[in-house]
Design goal:
- About 65% of the residues lie in helices and about 0% in strands.
- By secondary structure, the chain is mainly alpha-helical.
- It folds into two domains: about 60 residues, no CATH class; about 70 residues, Arc Repressor Mutant, subunit A, CATH 1.10.10.
- Helix 3 packs antiparallel against helix 4 and helix 3 crosses helix 5.
- The chain is elongated.
Length: about 150
Amino acid sequence: DGDVAIMMVEAEATEKTIQLVKDGAEAPTEEIVAAGLEAAKPFIKTLCKAQSDLASKAAKPEGDFPVFLDYQDDVLDALAKAVTPELKQALTIAGKQERETELDRVKEIAAEKLLPEFEGREKEISAAYRALTKKLVRERVIKDKVRIDGR
């Protein structure tokens, strides 16, 4: 039908609007705002068509972009085998200071266990530790419906 549907309206006023209304200026009613939106529809339709035309002429094809992680799977797998139980336990501590202290201790254990096997890859171990921590926090929130702070 060619009608332009407006799904969301973001209204913003200038800094002086509140003062103008306080000084007696009439605030816009819902009817005035609705009339303004109706008046804007032909212009919005024109802009949407122009954007669509431009995209069809200038858009680049979608493609897959490689993801370069800060760690390799072998480090993540070894880390998961080495410290997952301790890390899960540390993430159940509700107090932030206590939890952070325990997470630091678990990270040190991870480094001690993995450094001999992954010498020179300390940054990968650290990045994999962050990724594993994030994964376990997410799992806990989704499966157990408990946030990291215990709520």
